C-alpha cells in the first residue's frame, strides 16, 4: 500500500472555515459557471460513537449584488436564488438541530449549531426597512423548509453588535443589517429533511445524498442540517464575487442505539444504503475517513482499502484522512457499490488508545434558584489551554419574561472578579424585544469563568402561554465566539525539517482558529394563572368593585330618616278605599 | 407635646434600623405585597446601573420611577436607608402638625356652633373635649410610625409619596410632587382646595366670584408646579421617554406581577377584545368618586382627604401596604365615631387574617407548588372587600354623627317610641 501525502493549499479567497478539508486547486482550467462538490467525512469518536458530516457546496458565478437579473438556474436551487434576490440578502445561515453536541465526549464539531432552529442573516446595505424584510424573509423560509420559522418575530430577534461577523467577503461594520434569531423549541423531523434534500442538484437520487434516509438519520443522538449562503471571491484578486451555497448535515450515531453495542460501523449500518455512483453533476465527490488515531491500522481496520491519504489542519489539530474518490470507477470495485467498513480490533495487545485532544473552549449553562419568583442564570466557560489566555465574546439573548437585573451581573475567574472589557446590553421591552447581553471576556489559562445574572419571572396574560404551560419556556443557547490559539501550532517539537529563519516567530499555519461554542438551552418555569377562570375572575373582581360602588352610592344618595313602620296590607287597602270616599286615612 | 413625639420618633427609628440590619430586610424587599414594579428598590438600583452603562433607564421595561428619583438616589445611594427613615419621620411629623392644626379648626368650629345654639342639647355628649383631642396628633403619629405596614415599607425602601398641607403654595407644590410621582393624588386636589377655602372662610358657592377666583388661583399654582416638574425631568434626561414609561405604565398596566390589588389577575385573565374597555373602566373608577364625595363632604375636607386616600389605596393599579398605612394613620382622628361604627370587628378580623394569609398562600403558590394563583387572588379580593367595608363604615359613622348633631341624639318616632335611623 503506497501512502501518498498531498500538500494542499488553502483557497486564499475563502476564509478558513473550521472543518473544511481544502478543495483541490487545479491550476489551468478556468472555473466553470457553476460548480458542485460533495463530500462526506466520517470520524470515529472516542466514546465509540461515529460522526458523519456531509457537505454539499455549489458555487455560482452570478453576481447577486449587482443589478443584473439572475435567471437560468442550473445547479443553484431556484427557490433559494429567488429569496436571495428578492430580499437583498448578503449572507444567510440557517440550521435545524435535534440534540445537543457533547463537546467533552465528542470533541469539536466541524460546524457548530445550537439545539432547535437558528437563523442569522446579513442584509445588503440597499435595504431600507430591515425589520420588515426580516419578517417577510422568515415567513418565506418557513415555507421553503416546512419549519415554524414564522414564530420568529421581534420578541426573539436580536441585533448582535460584535458577534456574527460576516463569514463571506465584505467588510461590513454596520450591524444594523444583521439579524439573529433562535427557536430552541423547534423540532427537526423528516418534513424538514425532504425540502432540504430537494435543494440539492442531484436530489436524493445519486451521489452522497442517497445515504440521507430519514429513518436512520433521525435515529441518532445528534442531527443537524444547515444551509449557508455567502458571497466568495472568484479569483485571488477578488475582482468578481460568486455566491456559495453550502448545505451541511451532521449526524452522530450512538454506539448502543444504532450500533447495537458492537463497535463496528459501516455505511450500510449507519444509513441502510451503500454508495453506487457519484452525482453526475458534481465536479468532485469524495468520502474522507478520519484515520489519525489509526496510523498503522492498530485500532481499527478500514475496508475496502484505499491508496489515497490526505492531511489537513482542522480545528487546530493535524488530522489524517483516507480518501475515497467516487468519481473514479475503481472506488466501487467489482460489486459496483461502496460500503466502507470500520471494524475495531479487540485490544488484547495492550494498545493504549490515543488521548482525545481536549477541546480548548467549552461551556455550560444552568438555572439556579428555587420557586417561581426569581432565579439566576449561571454560564461557565472553560479554558483548557495550558498557558494561553484568550478573549471570548459571549452573546446571550434572554426572552423578555425573564427580567434580568444587570446590576447583579458578576463575572469571576478562579475566584476573583474579572471585569469584561466590553459590555453591550440592550434591556428588553415587554412583549417587544428580548434582552441582549454581549460581553468580551478575557479567559485566564486553565480556568473556569463564571458569569452570573439574576432574573425575575413575569406573570403573562393567559393567552400568551403555550398549550403546555407547565412544560416551561425555553431560553435560547448562548453563543461564545473566540479565536482560540492552536495547541498544534505551538508544537515546537516539530519533526519536519525546517530552516531556523522560518521558525522563530510562532506564526505557523493555523496559529489560531475561529471557534463558536453554543451552550445548552434552558428550560424555565413561569408562574401560571388558572386557565379555566377568565369568566369567573371577571365576575368576581367586578363584584368587588360593585360592592365598593354600591356602598358609596348608598351613602352618597340617601339621607338618614327616622324609620316609620309601614302599615300592614289590610290597613293599606282600607286607606285606598277611604281616599276614594274622601274620608281621613287611618 | 414635643417630648413624647421625640420619644416616638426615636423608638420608630430604632425599630427600623434594627430591621435593616437583619437579613429580614432582603426578604421583605422581595415581597410582592410590599413592593410593586413602580416603587421597588431593586428596580431603582437597576435604573442607576443602566444609567452607569450609558443606557437610558427607560429603554427597557424594568424602571418606572420618575427621573427626579433617579437623580435623588444617584447622590444618596449610600445613604438610602437613612433617607427612607428620615422620610418616614418627616411624614410622621408632618401628619402630627397637620392633625394638630385640624383639631384646632374643629374645636373652633364646634365652639362657634355651640355659641350659635345650633346643636340640640342632648348631643352634648357627642362634642369633643379638648383633652380628648390633645392626644390625637400623637396617636396619629404613632399609628403611622408603628404600623407594621409602614415599618415594612420603609425597610423595603418603597418610594411612596406623602402629602403635607399648610400654606396654599406649599400644598400646591407638594400635591404636584405627589401627582408627578404617581397620577392618582390628582384627586386630592379637590379636598385640598376645599380645606384651604374653609381656612380662609370662603364659602363654597358656585355663584360667588371669590370661590372661582381662589379656585383658579390654586389650580394655576398646582398645574404650574406640575408643569415645572415635568419639564425639569425632561431636561434631566434629555428625552420624553419617561412619560410613557411612568404614566403610560400606571395607566395601561402592562406588568402583571401579583400584588394586593385587583388589577393583576383581572388583566391576566382578561379576554383581549375587552382589555381596553375594562382598563378604562377600572382607571375611571379611581377618579370617579371625587366629584360626588366632594359635593357631599364639602364642609369636611379632611374627611374627604381621608376617603380619597383610602379609595386610591384600594383601587389603584399597583397598590402596596404602604398606601394602606397612610390612610390608616388617619383613623385616630375619627376616634369619636367609634360608637357609630357597625362592622369594625369584622373588618379588623378580616384585615388581620388576610395580612397573615398573604405570605402563606404566596409561598404555597410560588414555592411549594401545592396551591395555585386562585388562592392568592381570593385573599386579594377579601382584602379589598374588607378595606371597602372599613371605608364605607367610617363614612356611615361620620354621616350619622353629623345627622345627630343637627337633629339630636335620641330620636323619637311619631308615636313617641324610640326610633331607629335608616338610610332612605
Quick summary:
By secondary structure, chain A is an alpha+beta fold. Chain A has eight helices and 28 strands. The two termini of chain B are 44 Å apart.
Unreliable residue stretches of chain B: 154-166
Give the mean pLDDT of chain A. Answer: 85
- Quote the beta fraction of chain A: 25-35%
Main β-sheet of chain B: number of strands, strand sense, barrel status? Answer: none
Question: What is the β-strand count of chain B?
Answer: 1
Major sheet of chain A? 12 strands, mixed
Largest interface: A-B, 52 and 68 residues
Helix count of chain A?
8
Strand content of chain B: under 5%
Tally of separate helices of chain B: 19
Oligomer: heterodimer
Which strand order do you get reading across the main beta sheet of chain A? 1-13-14-11-2-3-9-8-4-5-7-6
Uncertain spans of chain A, ≥5 residues at pLDDT below 50?
1-24, 28-32
Secondary structure: helix percent of chain A:
10-25%
SSE ordering of chain B:
HHHHHHHHHHHHHHHHHHHE
Shape of chain A: elongated
Shape of chain B: globular
Radius of gyration from the alpha-carbon trace of chain A, in angstroms: 33 Å
Rounded Rg of chain B = 23 Å
